[in-house]
Amino acid sequence: MNAQDAIVKLLWLAPVLPLATGGVCALLKRRHRAAAASLAIGSVSASLLLAVWALAATVREPDPVRHVVNFNWFQAGNAWIGLGWVLDPLSAVMLVMVALVSLLIFVFSVGYMAHDENFTRFFCFLSLFAGAMLGLVIANSLLLLFGCWELVGLTSYLLIGFWYHKPSAAAAAKKAFITTRIGDLAFLLGMIWLYAETGTLLFYDQGRGCLEQSALNLLALRTAGLGVAVATAVGLLLFLGAMGKSGQVPLHVWLPDAMEGPTPVSALIHAATMVAAGVFLMARVHPLVAMTDADIKPTGLYAQSIPGDAAACRPGGVQKIPITPPGQAGHDLNLPVDPNAPGRTTVSTALKVVTWVGVLTALFAASVAVAQTDIKRILAYSTVSQLGFMMLGLGTGGVAVGMFHLITHAFFKALLFLGAGSVIHGCHEEQDIRRMGGLGKLMPVTFSTYAIGMMALSGVPILFSGFWSKDEILHAAHGWPVSRLPFLIAVLAALLTAFYMTRQICYVFLGVWRGSPGNAGDPRKVTAPSHAGRDTSSSGGLPHESPAVMTVPLLVLAVGSVVLGFFGTPAWPWFQGFLLGRRESLELGRLLAGGTLGLMALSALVAGVGILVGYWLYGRRPPGAADESDPLEHFHPAVFSVLRRKYCFDELYDVALVRPTAAFARACHWADQVLWGGAVRAVSRVTTALSWASRLVDEYFVNAGFDRVCDGLSRGGGHCSRFQNGQPQRYLRAIAVGLLVLALLLLWGCRTV
Amino acid sequence: MIPVNYLDLLRLAAPETVVLAGALVVLGVDLLALREVETGLRRLLLLILGAVTCGAAIAWMAAFPNLGNFMQGMLVVTPLTQWVKGGVLALAILTLLLSGGASFTNHWGEYVALLLLSAVGLMFLVSSESLLVIFIALELASLSLYILAAFHHDAPESAEAALKYFLFGSVSAGFMLFGLSLLYGLSGSIDLREIAAALGGPFLDPLLAVAMVTVAVGLGFKIAAAPFHLWAPDVYQAAPPPSAAFIASASKLASFFVLAKVLSVGMGGLEGRAVFGDYLPGWVPLLAALAAASLLWGNLAAIVQTNVRRLIAYSAIAHAGYMLLGIMGGKAGLPALVYYAMTYGFTTLGAFGVASLVRDRVGGDNLSDFAGLSRREPWMAFCMLVFMLSLAGIPPLAGFFGKFYLFAAALKTSSLDLLWLVILAIGMSAVSLYYYLQVLKQIYVVPPPSGLAAAPIPSLPKTVIILAALTVIVLGCAPNLLLRVLAAP
Predict the structure, then answer these.
(1) Which domain holds residue B455?
(2) pLDDT 10s digits, A631-681
């Protein structure tokens, strides 16, 4: 227990170490490359050790328990604003995932960014990001979570625009920042509302936190208007924030553009961790989002009051709050994974929205990915699609389902991105898959690991983690009591996933090398001077395998992509049980029970069909030249063109939002110049005229009068002074006169009395 | 008949005794020991001896604060009188040190002794509440000052001014004695408190009115209030500068204090009312008339002056007008009045010091002789700037807060009866800025005349001037340092 308490108390170090490293790296000079890299890797390794320790401590806990450390931040009026961190299965799992993926990508970046002159700055930003992300994961306060959320948004902005001299990168950075800001605004509103209702932003605080039963009761009982409970409204606002961060339709537009950043950034931030923060947020506040009238339970604590003042003085010690597993004491906020368990019939409105948005995003992004030609953009749309799957999982199956896919996806998507980075690196900054081909022989390690990632993403059965996690989601969607439609859409999206990944593999690794040696004339090379030196030295060569510093992380991630799946199979759903506070044992029988096997078979079939169709279209007869048109284009050019142009979302936004805004800005500018400027100029003219008039008055009336007064004073002084002629006789006479006058004055007064 | 306890008397009058003994010692030492000593050294030793005597008296008051009332008002010692006497002695010390570089006489023993004697007179004046003692003390101080004013051995105008001063002083003393005898006749007592009890009020007997006016003439002469001020410009201009400085500072401080005491204690029920156009006879309308005359006459006549010491004289008349407002403020105005008189004393003493230095250097103290002082003597120029601005009442110097507290006291006690006088005072303050700035314009703007040899200035007067300027600045920035102890019961 002591070791557990110790890790709980030390947990804050996990985010603070990388944050401090970021600060130190910011002060380092540009030439201290080794120092920056080793500091960053060292600090994130330390964070990983802490994370593993925390996970081990949580796993060894005999009873599922949530460790919370709260402290007061500042006082506002009577209320104390508290912050804190929490160690529970959810944060422990996320901690390990974030720290591990960060470490691997840091190592990979040493090789990938080796030739960049701003190497130090890159590691500064990366450390900053890792710290903020770890802080987000362990936050026990919506406020702290929001702060870290904004920090990761900031580092995302900085890293997308890392090559800021490239106009497209700068534009993409701005786009990412502004688009996510829309979601963040909703997040902020939701947060404020939540605080107004419950008086606290702490998640868990000995029954007083905003995610605990008494606060949830309160939120479900109060209505926000139109018959919507406050819980629903706040949940939806928070979900809007999550949509921005996690690239859900229609706020997804920034994520594909974010691929302008360096590839390790895409892997770390825009695939594995930060974009999953939205999903994580939904998992964290799941009790709130899932709250319905049916979940209202009497508690011993306050019934209707706002507990803000009760939280005045909070001890800094470790609190232990038991996690109630579903099915116990009737406190079941999560849908059971097992369809045989008694299913819920009431689903909260917020969860319905989450489900629908998720599944539509999954299908939409998967269909766009089919028609893309940029290796990273395909992966980006794939990420959007998989995030949609996670939301679907959260909406239909609860925290465990969504989080399982989040973890497995983090590994295989980081693997894919790093693989893509390795490919791009090997092909001298080429990103167009039509100009690749035949890399399987030239880059064997990259190819094999990439293939593992691809199979995991496509959901190839049994061996790969993606199969198990996606199967869980399909399973949950199948059992969703509201509608069967999301399940069907998800199956279609899964099919497309397998298809576009096969297409990509065929284009990149099979067939023959289609790129021109050296890629002369590629604009990317001109605008990315960081690699220019290397390019000139090796230009004209064929693609080459990347160095060990880049391939070793690939291998580690590949292992993770395979192994992780076995922790969450239906036969032994350890992961799900761990998250929900249950102990699960190995029961092979469950694999065969009921619809499980059928669904698994369907899932495997879908993946197989997708891969086969892909291979039939692209692998059987690989394209011979770079400018050969896509086989799909022959089927239906119009549809294909719409897909390639991403359903024209960018154009739509341009017409609907950007241009009206710009026009409005121009109108404001015109009004400012002509209307207000004119008014100001008119006022200035009037003032000038008035000041002329007042100057005249001043000169001819006031000054003249003043001069006359002054003359009078001066003459009076002369008279007084002349009286003083030096004659004592006159002086003494003055006494007499003075005496007489004063005496008469007083005597005259006496007479009147 | 009450038996007289001479030990009590000695205890209460110890500071005066110390100064008196000092004066005699100075005379004796000068005659017996310093006859053959070279003039410069002799002067230095005697001045230091005089200063040490005053310092010893101050130290005595600080160490043995004996308070009491001896023989029904013959000698009344309160914390406030101790402070005023301390102020008189401090000004005396500064005056003595200011004489350090002067050469207007060779009779330094007599000079120092007379200065100390007049200080003794002023101290008794402050301490007494008996008509007889007041008059005797007044005469002791005045007679010493007449001689001090005539001390310039080779300047006939010094003797002329002293003669005028003496004539004017003796006439007004005669009036005052007449008034005092009337008071005694009306009340049957020479103790101010008993007089107040006997006179009652609030209505004025015609005979009492005459007594009041004649007393006002006598003390109005001492404080140089118009129209009894006519001696002041001549004396200020022609007397040796240290003497003039002492007349303008210490003598004024004590005289104002005694005037306030005689009126507010001795005629406590006879204030009257001085609303403009509707007055009730009493000493308040009397003082209001004097104050208005002083304000107008002093400020207006100062505008046309070309001599700096004469200008300071007229400004002194104007300041007497301001200070009369404090007396009209009654008992509550007393701390403000003492604060103003003390800071005014330091300011005007410093200004006389600067004028004296300029006179020694350039040969005159007309306005034009100050041209370009800032180039020649930046420190002295800055001190003069402080003095002039303080006299004009510019914050944060002592003159500003002094005026502020005076006006506030006058308005507070009389429920705005005196508003017209305060408005007049403020307006005249604005006028006064003109002539003070004339001096500063000469110092800072007008270029210095060519061909003026640089010569070292004596360090003793310089130190005194800088000390005075520092006092003005410190008391201006922290007026509570002094006001708090003055207002303490």
Answers:
(1) 277-489
(2) 788 778 888 888 888 888 888 888 888 899 999 999 999 999 999 999 999
Q: Does residue A716 sit at the B interface (CB-CB below 8 Å)? A: yes
How far, in Å, CA of B50 to CA of B226, rounded? 34
Query: How many helices (H) and strands (E) would you count in chain A?
Result: 33, 5
Average pLDDT over residues B18-22: 95
Dihedral over alpha carbons A639, A642, A644, A647 (to 10 degrees): -130
Any B CB within 8 A of A641 CB? no
Chain A CA closest to residue B285: A746
Per-residue model confidence as pLDDT tens digits over B56-99: 999 999 998 888 888 888 899 999 999 999 999 999 999 999 99
Q: On the CB side of A227, how many CA atoms lie within 13 Å of its CA? A: 1
Residue B478 — φ and ψ, nearest 5°? Answer: -130, 70
Please, what is the Cα angle at B258 between B253 and B264, to 5 degrees? 125
pTM, whole model, 2 decimals?
0.59
Helix (H, G, I), strand (E, B) or coil at A73: strand
**Interface list for chain B against chain A, based on CB atoms closer than 8 Å:** 163-164, 167-168, 171-172, 175, 203-206, 209-210, 212-214, 216-217, 220-221, 227-228, 230-231, 233-234, 272, 279-282, 285-286, 289-290, 296-297, 300-305, 431
Secondary structure of A609-669 in the HEC alphabet? HHHHHHHHHHHCCCCCCCCCCCHHHHHCHHHHHHHHCHHHHHHHHHHHHHHHHHHHHHHHH
In a domain, B447, yes or no: yes
Token reading at A741: 């006058």
Phi first, then psi: what are they for B271, rounded to 5°? -65, -40
With a cut of 90, say whether residue A343 has pLDDT above it.
no
With respect to residue B300, please indicate whether it lies within any of the assigned structural domains. Answer: yes
Return the residue of B nearest to A710 by Cα.
B431
Q: By the 8 A CB rule, do A625 and A514 touch?
A: yes
Q: Counting runs of H as helices and runs of E as strands, what totals does chain B give?
A: 21, 4
Tokens 């070292």 belong to residue: B456
- Rounded to whole angstroms, the Cα distance separating A424 from B466 reads 83
A183's tokens: 């979601």
Contacts of A683 (CB under 8 A, 6+ apart): none
Indicate the SS3 state at residue A272: helix
Put simply, the answer to whether A749 touches B279 (Cβ < 8 Å) is yes
pLDDT in tens, B322-373: 999 999 988 888 999 999 999 999 999 999 999 998 888 888 889 988 988 8
B351 is a domain residue: yes
Confirm if B477 and B116 have CB atoms less than 8 A apart. no
Q: Which residues pair with A320 in a beta bridge?
A: A67
DSSP string, B113-182: HHHHHHHHHHHHHHH--BHHHHHHHHHHHHHHHHHHHT--TT-HHHHHHHHHHHHHHHHHHHHHHHHHHH
Q: How far is B228 from chain A (nearest CA, A)?
A: 6
Judge whether B237 lies within some domain: no
The domain tally of chain B equals 1
Instruction: Record the tokens describing residue B323, joined without a space.
Output: 């200070």
Among A715, A720, A744, the residue to mutate for chain B (most B Cβ within 10 A): A720
CA–CA distance from B341 to each of A255, B198, B283, B326, B482 (Å)?
82, 31, 20, 10, 12
Per-state percent for chain B, helix, strand, coil, to nearest 5: 75, 5, 20
Distance, in Å, from the CA atom of B232 to the CA atom of B247, rounded to the nearest integer, reads 9
> Quick check: A746 and B168 CB within 8 A?
no
A chain contacts of residue B203, beta-carbon cutoff 8 Å? 750, 753
ipTM for the whole complex: 0.87
Contact B209/A713, CB-based, under 8 Å? no
